[in-house]
Amino acid sequence: MASDRSYLTYSDNLEGKFTVPIINLGSEDKPYSTKVLSTGSSGGSSRAASYESRTLPNEKVATGSFRGVYSYSPQFPRKGYQFGDYSSKSLPRPGEKHLEYYTSGDPMDGDDVKREIKVSKLSGRRSISPDQQFEVKITTKKKKTVVDSRTHNVFDMNRDEADSNTPVLGRDKTWVMVQKKTFTNWFRDRVKGNASKELNDLQTDLEDGKLLHDLIRALTEGKHGNRVPHKNPSLRVQKIENINVALMAMKTENVRLESIGAEDICDGNLKLILGMIWCLICRYQIADISTTTRKISAKKVLLQWMQAQLPQHHITNFTKDWNNGITLAALIDSLQPGLIPDWQSWSPSTSRENVARAMAIAEENFDIPQIIEPEDMAASHPDELSVMCYLSYFCGPDSIGFHTLKNWVNGRIPEPHITNFSSDWKDGRALCTLIDSFIPGHMPSEEEIYRQPPIQNVSEGMDFAKKRLGVEPNLLAEEFVNPDIDPLSVMTYISRYRSAKPTIDEAQLVSVVGTGVSGGSVGQEASFFVRHIPPGGKVTVVVTGPDGSDIPVNQRITETGALQILYTPTIPGTYIVAVMLDGKHINGSPFKVTHHAVPQPSNCLVSGAGLSRAQVGQWAEFQVDCMRAGPGSLGVQVLSPQGELDHEVENKSDKVFGVKFEPVAVGEIKIGLTWAGLPIPGGPYLCQVSDPSKCIASGPGLSGGKLGQTTSFTVSTVGAGPGSLDTSIFGPDGTVPIDRVDEDGEVNFSYTPQHQGSYLIDVKWDGFPIRGSPFKVRPAAAVDASRVIVMKPPSTIKAGQETSFMVNTRSAGHGVLKAEARGPKITEKCQIFQQEEGLYRVSFTPTEVGKIEVDVTYGGTSVPGTPFQVQSKDPYRCVVDTKAVSGQTIRANETVVIPVSTKLAGDGVITATARGPTGLFDLSCSKQAPGFYNVMFTPTVPGLHLLDIYFDKDPVLDSAVQINVEPPGDIIFEKPPTHDGYYYTDEQLDFVARTEDDDPTELKVYAYGTKSNSIPRVAIERYPGVGQVIHCTASYPDDYRLEVSYGGQPISGSPFLLPVVNPPNASAVVLGDPVIPLEAGRPVEVAVDATRAGTGGLTCSASGKSAGVVRADITEVAPNQYNIYFVPPIEDTYTLNVQWSKDSVPGTPVVIPFSREEEEPTVQVVVEPDKDEVGHLSASAVSRGMGEGVAVEVRQFEKGKYRVSFEPPTPDLYDLQVEWNGQPLDGMPFEIDCRSLETALSLTDLSTLTAEVIGDSAGEIPVEVVPVDNGDFEISFLAKHKELHQMNLFWQKRKIKGSPFEIDNRRRQ
């Protein structure tokens, strides 16, 4: 009979003999069944039999030799498992394979081997009994594994799915299914919402690589996984290519896999797939240690964090320490205290319920998905990798563990503010600040931290924390400052501070106080007290003099029981005082103490205005020089009637002090000074405090008055305190005399300004300027309208057209300029625009025809030369009677009379011209009566004639009168109408010849070009009732001659000239960007390219909103290439209209704002596109942070040079895109760095708006400009009379457009 346990003993070449117990791995709920081989009789026969057991392992075994699983315990520390196969028909022979097994150490070490045991010698019978001894030989070969060389995770790839039911480590391979479920849930969580298809089976759904790309894209946040070679792969080679691209992305991300290929994933090798997913979990979910050289596994990194978070639980693994759910509940409650307050009362017997409850709480409060099922985690042997994967959610990026620790750190150290566990800790500042919060005063200062290398800061902090706080580092200082260190390791180290307990150093608790450690005087006994001495502690004090000698020290116990140390310094200098408790220096020891000679306060020198005078709200300063006063410290006391005032003392140099204080009220202040506790001679000093802001100045003399007239102002001194009032006035010619009258509480001043210009009135109380001083005034000159100069407009003007003239008032004083234009029936007010100081442009637009009288007044008085008269006329009000030519047959050599009425157009003369086949000629015009003319037209040749009629050289009609003149006699020859005297290429011209018999054989036509050999196409057709029609079409521009004969004789007018040109195409005209100069007096230029626009003429007109019509000139610089230019007379917005053959060209009208800029924009770039063709430069700017565009101004200030400018609304990086004719220039876009710009305006910016108000009689009036919200200003002044006021506004000393503005308060009640 066999015993309960049988053994096989064999010899190993390396370790000697091993005893191997025979074990049955059955279980109660799942019996282990196998074939066994029983021994027979002595003859050695054998037979096969069945064996089944429901008993637990090691309880029962079969008799004889059988197939089973063998476990061994070698001498070296290894876990082992092996598989033996005795199912063969005969027993093993020497040299045959007896069994094979695997041995394994730590699953993270990657050094598993496969061993085969072969029988080398068999003693006794060939059958094997339980107690029989035999020898075996062990050969070793490497397993096929997938090893992540960074995380040291090992995955067995030798066992295929057919081996899935083989027991492993005493249990079947349920870990495969648990890992498959867990990793599937993790996969779904990471690609949630972005998966290309649903993941149902991790083993088969990855075969086309698409889901694998989704995972890589999610893990790398879009860096990889976007390029899938085949969107819908159907062939195996396409699927493998997709997978290979994903594996290459993993390699790029330092996920190092060995012995795994795309074919394994495509074929559904589950263990390989699980191994690959685990490597990704370690890289992205647990701890990214792929970029460091640390010899540590992801398991250990995660385990260290768990141990730091739960230091009282002594966690050593990710299996049995977690399967009862209690540790998980403790983890949750540690991250949010009070979430599971009763976890300590949970029973281990309800492990499945504990795990389920804890997981549900974590999911509800921390959004942690239940990727592992509660029953799998609560199993007796939970899968380690699945548990690690789930627990990593508690400490990953943006996890509850991350935020809990970050909030704890920020609550303990407000500065620096922590946002991560990587870059925020690299310089050591945050670590030293955290340590300092436990035990202050031992870490490097902030200045030292910035000066020292980061590794030195971290090393000092780690060493101190280990010694005094008991915080053991889990990483080295050089690893802590490494930018590639995984954040979880840093989190682990910082988490250990949450349970830190400062150790008590009794020597550091002892303190001293007194002159013996702070300093004193030579010859005077110095003493100090030693406090907080622990019971039984021994204090030792050693004092060393400046010359190295030992100074005698006395000790005594005071009545209160304190220890007092006494010694007497004999020479000046620094003494070293060492205070030790039980032989250990106390905090701060040894002390460096300086003892000086006897102080001499009489040698102190005191000086400064603040000793005698000061003003409320302003710093009063004085200086105390104690360089020759010996040892001591300066004592200052400032006493006012309201009590002692705060003061500041600054040691400017060696014993030279600056003292300042700020009085709060008027009165007398006493200043007491001491040196080394002794009074400084000369004190106390008495300082008189005044308040100049209480002085109020008012009166017309502060607004200027008028030249030659005495004006006055008053200053009230009530509440200003002690002092005297001093006033001076400085004018254009120097100091101005002042009359002064002092009264109770106020002083009256009067003066007489004699010369035009600015006056400065300086008013001071007790030597300090009062509020508003110095006052700047400008007396108004007496208005003298006789000195106004009017530059009259032309005597003849056009109705409906703006007319302007200039008025110069520079020598006439300050007054109000007015003008009005009176027509026969209507009087209209003129508009007045100030061009510069004393120069105005006056404009009006007459609406009537006839005599217009213009009246100009200045200061209410008519100026010389006004009123003056101009004649207004309107050529378009002429009436032309075209009945004589409309619908009438006109033959050559006949005279036609065309009546013209000018009665409604004003006074003027009618002239006329005609253009026909023979060219341009004048027509005879005669005046029949006032306002009536006759125009006589006598054509000499047949053909089309164009009549133009003018009224004082201005055309009276929008277009010329067309008259078709027929030949004289019997033959009537009609030419087709022209286009302003021209015919177009490829246009069929139909000429009609009417004869009495219409014989086609008699009519002959010949056409040819005079400048080229071009012959137009000519055809003749006979139309009954109409005549014979000559069709002529020319394909090329030329001056053609058309010779027409009838019956062998040229008809009247033959040969006919046919000017043929290309038809005009205004849309082909290209306008360039206007050249807008930055300074006045230079012309605005616009380039025009009409080379592709056919035949035509270029015309233009320019006008400003305020300037009116401006002369514009055209210069042809090359064939059909032009420059248009005009000189802006004033700052204004101008409009340029450009036509080609009376058709507007693209881009017209061109709006051109012109101003003389004095300030440059915030951002400006000069661009020279270097283009020969005429074109357009455009630009746009976009803020990178906000993604919003900003307004960009493009200005061509010189030919070919552009200024591109904009005002950035916020500090940011801006991308500037510049294009020429819609195409980006090389190097676009430009990057503009505006991150250092200030967006808020300062007060000096706001103060650049000023105003000037002038009344008709009051002259210049004081005005106040106050900035309010949103860049607005409030302007106020006091109007002393009901009169008309003019207000000029200036920005940065430049007059704002529209100034002056009229303010009329004459009608106000």
Structure report:
The protein is 14% helix and 37% strand. The protein contains 19 helices and 93 strands. The chain has a 7-stranded antiparallel sheet with strand order 1-2-5-6-7-8-9, with no helix packed on it. Mean pLDDT is 79; it is low at 1-172 and 1238-1247.
Strand and helix layout:
Blueprint: E1 7-12, E2 16-23, E3 32-39, E4 46-53, E5 68-70, E6 79-84, E7 97-104, E8 113-122, E9 134-142, E10 145-148, E11 153-156, H1 174-190, H2 210-219, H3 236-252, H4 262-266, H5 270-286, H6 298-309, H7 326-335, H8 351-366, H9 374-377, H10 384-391, H11 400-412, H12 429-438, H13 446-451, H14 454-469, H15 477-480, H16 487-495, H17 506-509, E12 511-513, H18 515-518, E13 520-521, E14 526-531, E15 539-544, E16 550-551, E17 554-557, E18 563-567, E19 573-581, E20 584-585, E21 591-596, E22 605-607, E23 613-615, E24 620-625, E25 634-640, E26 643-644, E27 647-653, E28 656-661, E29 667-675, E30 678-679, E31 685-690, E32 696-698, E33 711-716, E34 725-731, E35 734-735, E36 739-743, E37 746-751, E38 759-765, E39 768-769, E40 775-777, E41 789-791, E42 796-798, E43 803-808, E44 817-822, E45 827-829, E46 831-836, E47 839-844, E48 850-858, E49 861-862, E50 868-873, E51 879-880, E52 890-891, E53 896-901, E54 910-916, E55 919-922, E56 924-929, E57 932-937, E58 943-951, E59 954-955, E60 961-966, E61 972-974, E62 983-984, ...
Parallel strand pairs: 13-21, 23-31, 42-50, 52-60, 62-69
Antiparallel strand pairs: 1-2, 2-5, 3-4, 5-6, 6-7, 7-8, 8-9, 10-11, 12-14, 14-18, 15-16, 15-19, 17-18, 19-20, 19-21, 22-24, 24-28, 25-26, 25-29, 27-28, 29-30, 29-31, 32-33, 33-37, 34-35, 34-38, 36-37, 38-39, 38-40, 41-43, 43-47, 44-45, 44-48, 46-47, 48-49, 48-50, 51-53, 53-57, 54-55, 54-58, ...
